[in-house]
Design brief:
By secondary structure, the chain is α+β, with helices and mostly antiparallel strands. It has a single domain, classed as Glutaredoxin, CATH 3.40.30. The chain is 36% helix and 25% strand. The longest helix has 17 residues, at 60-76. The chain is globular. Residues 20-161 form the Thioredoxin domain.
Length: 162
Amino acid sequence: MFSHLPAFSVTLLLFFTLPTFAVEPAPDFTLPSFPDNREISLKDFKGRVVYLDFWATWCPPCRKSFPWMDEMHERYKDEGLSIIAVSVDKKREQIEQFIKKTKPAFIIAHDPTGNVAKTYELRAMPTTYLIDRNGQVVMTHMGFRSTDTDKLEATIQSLLEE
């Protein structure tokens, strides 16, 4: 009578433990870029794969991610990748000091009010959203660990090939 129960239990277990990647439109935003204060909007990047990273100068994993993001920018910018790193630091001076040291080649934006971070329902630092060429969020990744970089790069490559 209950012979189907083990298979059903395994199916139920998998359903609740596998990650889900619901594709949804990335909320548009307009923020000042750093250091020139030029306004950038996400909609301006339609047709490109966007690696949208929320970070702060006080966050060690955030700081650790910058050399890797620079490497990805240099490797894939001509294939259609744009990296936008959105700082949630309140003061521009904090960002300025960090940027002088790291000299990133990708776009830095500033969200001092945290409104864009709230729109994206940020829960951890750093948090990255991979956005496809159609403006859809296809992956969310929290934290930065060197053990995750191969998977992140493979996902970027896959999106660039679409």
